[in-house]
Amino acid sequence: MDDVTDTVFRQIIAGCAKPNLFFTEFVNVDGLQSPGKSKLVHKLKFSKQEQPIFAQIWGKNPDNYYKTVQELVKIGFAGVDINMGCPDKSVVKNGCCSALINNRELAQEIIEATKRAADGQIPVSVKIRTGFDQVDFSWPEFILNQGIDMLTVHGRTTKEMSKLPARWQDIAKVRQIRDKIAPQTLLVGNGDVLSRQQGEQLAKQHKLDGIMIGRGIFNDPYIFAKKDIWLDVSTKEKLELYKKHIKLFKSTWQPGDRQNFEGLKKFAKMYINGFKGASKLRGEFVRQQTLGEMLKILKDYQA
Ligand SMILES: Cc1cc2nc3c(=O)[nH]c(=O)nc-3n(C[C@H](O)[C@H](O)[C@H](O)COP(=O)(O)O)c2cc1C
Fold first, then answer.
1. Residue 139 contacts by C-beta under 8 Å, 6 or more apart in sequence?
2. Ligand 1 within 6 A of 54 CB?
3. How confident is the model at residue 258 (pLDDT cuts 50, 70, 90)?
4. pLDDT score, position 262
């Protein structure tokens, strides 16, 4: 997830309970192939502990997909995922991501360029929504006809953003289409999954190959564990984990690499939660102006 699941957070998650597959934040191939590249490369940073990890890319120009994917193979990514699902207005108005539903010729060229560059060395996957204004099964059918290795389906349309609950029955219908026209393509469902157990139940019920979890990670860094762990983690351990996260952030990013250290405060709701006085401590924590001050607040707290 953009500006959330950087290498630092993924390493924290890998240390708690690792998923079978990680994805990077989405990164724009047109930017990567421009003089502005240095502003984006931090999104492609990963450590060994995060393997297997797919780089997630988006953009407009098939040549830039081709060049970028050749680089991703060399860097050592386990696979590449093309984002054709993001509904954000800023990307859709430029004809990118989920807007490709309405430009299938370009979607096909992008997949073709990506496959050519991957050259069978790494798998190619695509992430989509179920339609633009309304559910349109001709879209997943079109993508499944492109000979890709994996398809992730988010059970909402572009127009719905995240406003309505994800429709798993639509994902199940895509699975039926997959069974008929592309049985070799793995199918992954996505939307509103808040625990591994819930994900496994949905995968079983709808005969899916996998489940992608997004926002659920904001509540529970152990979400990929086989049993519930986070509820039993003590306040002291939660704060220790937050300190570890901040210290790793500090040692990983140089000032300017990733300006957004404020983004670290997004995790306060997860780590500083579930104990008496949490809300007051969170309030104090988010007012701090430096990483050092943030660490001090956590260190000084008597759990
Ligand atoms: C802050 C934020 C950033 C996101 N960034 C990405 C992204 O870079 N790539 C992507 O495929 N999806 C991204 N998503 C969408 C999620 O991956 C996921 O598809 C969506 O939130 C629905 O699944 P969930 O209910 O498990 O979160 C993002 C979502 C949020 C809230």
1. 101, 128, 130, 131
2. no
3. low
4. 85
Which of the four pLDDT bands, split at 50, 70 and 90, describes residue 259? low
What is the C-alpha to C-alpha distance for residues 281 and 275, in angstroms, rounded to an integer? 10
SS (H, E, C) 234-293: CHHHHHHHHHHHHHHHHHHCCCCCCCCHHHHHHHHHHHCCCCCCHHHHHHHHHCCCCHHH
Distance CA 117, CA 72 (A): 9
Tens-place pLDDT, residues 222-249? 999 999 999 999 999 999 999 999 999 9
- How many angstroms is it from 6 CA to the middle of ligand 1? 13
Please work out, in degrees rounded to the nearest 5, the angle formed at the alpha carbon of residue 119 by the alpha carbons of 116 and 122. 120
Write down the pLDDT at residue 302: 87
Q: Whose CA is nearest to atom 16 of ligand 1?
A: 214
96 as an active site residue: the answer is no
Rounded-to-integer distance, Cα 246 and Cα 12, Å? 10
